[in-house]
Amino acid sequence: MNRxxxxxxxxxxxxxxxxxxxxxxxxxxxxxxxxxxxxxxxxALALAVPMSLWILAALLVVGFWWERAGPxxxxxxxxxxxxxxxxATLPEHRRDWGAAMTAELGEVQGRAARWGFAxxxxxxxxxxxxxxxxxxxxxxxxxxxxxxxxxxxxxGAAVPGLGSFTAVFVGILGAxxxxxxxxxxxxxxxxxxxxxxxxxxxxxxxxxxGVAASLAVTVTTVHLDLREPASARIPSLGGGVLLATxxxxxxxxxxxxxxxxxxxxxxxxxxxxxxxxYAGFFLFLVRWPGPADGLYLLGVWLAPxxxxxxxxxxxxxxxxxxxxxxxxxxxxxVAVLPIGFAVLLxxxxxxxxxxxxxxxxxxxxxxxxxxxxxxxxxxxxxxxxFPFAVIGAAFGALLPRRRAPEVRxxx
Amino acid sequence: xxxTRRPSAQTTxxxxxxxxxPSAWRYGYELCRELDLKPGSLYPILVRLADRGVLETAWExxxxxxxxPRHLYRLTGAGRTLxxxxxAATPRRTASPRRSEPGWQxx
Lengths: 411, 107
Known about the structure:
The structure holds 2 protein chains of 2 kinds.
Chain A: H1 3-30, H2 37-74, H3 78-87, H4 95-105, H5 111-126, H6 134-158, H7 163-183, H8 190-196, H9 202-226, H10 237-255, H11 266-287, H12 292-319, H13 322-355, H14 369-397
Helix pairs in contact in A: 1-2, 2-14, 3-4, 3-5, 4-5, 6-7, 7-10, 9-10, 9-11, 9-13, 10-13, 11-12, 11-13, 12-13, 12-14, 13-14
Chain B: H1 9-19, E1 26-27, H2 28-35, H3 39-51, E2 55-59, E3 71-75, H4 77-89
Antiparallel strand pairs in B: 1-3, 2-3
């Protein structure tokens, strides 16, 4: 096998293992001191299953990408690969300058000189001047910082416990707006541009509604929890930051998706369908009269697998394209997180009002536990499901191509 | 009220180097070597000059087989005017900026 391809595969696997190791350490270090050592092994084993799936997905992504880009990359030396990677990050209107540097590298002779040119060119790629100059970026950054401070202070004063959550949510959106201004040809607010581009795509409407609903049920839960005696702070700092980050990124991707996600409509439609199917199936399970708890756990594990695998496979098969299947997996993630969270938390609150417990827990817990439960459950959905979208995409893309209809000569 | 910033020494050097033969197309690497500038410094200057309409750019039309076309640069009319002003303002300055990190140029 090609040595360069092996290096990319090694890097992909290392990244997955490092991410799961970081997650494991976070879980272990935040566990109460009363936890037994055996529970650490249980946690490690529980994480090993999704980690294996993510490693498989990463290897598939590298493999399919290599089929397309490998022949060109094999002809490049390491400095050329470095420069090619750096200039690939340039915004559309600066791509010519990246191509210019790449072409000039072809004229540079000598290993040290090529490394010098590539490193310096890569530095140039990340600091090419903005057409409107730095003042526009400074104004955008200043506005974003002021809005973050005001939102955090205002939310913290109105609903104690939501200050950091709101500051992180608005802060990430503000940072993404500044980044968009930095990469645009002219300073503009992508949100306003999208509003002008009617009709707004269905995925944008649904994800925005999902984020709004998630914020509403989160505020309601915190408000209800504050009424209970000896109330601890919910959401916890970590949980609040995690939830705010996830919701902000999903909202941003839905409103101003990166170019590679919007080259076709089918994956976005399939993503919405997958998210709605997951939410609908979950509601069916928890509201179905009878011994639902076992089915609920089954649904939590199997529904994401089915939703993601189906969307990835269908998109991959229709287009016979691995990339289409992966795009469908990304859209499913973006849609299922806010929509799923809103449904999970709403259902948790409804059940708590009836039974004074959260799904899958003993009675007697506080209403705030529904929030932690919903955050933990909804994050499991893409963690388990996304690799199946990649696997489904691979199967769909590898289906035999449809034959073109034979054209018979007219006599 | 408009404010005109004086170009940096490196920008001045690039403009004056391009003004030596105003009608000739120049390559980026060629300018790097001539002015002893790293591409990390030269290309942002070229981008800024092009954004301000001082620099005209084009792609090589008939590159040799197996090599991508190179990007070419020369001054526009406004660029030549600017070069004249800069040359008058800095009569003793040579087209060689401060050398910051030597040793990267190739053969």
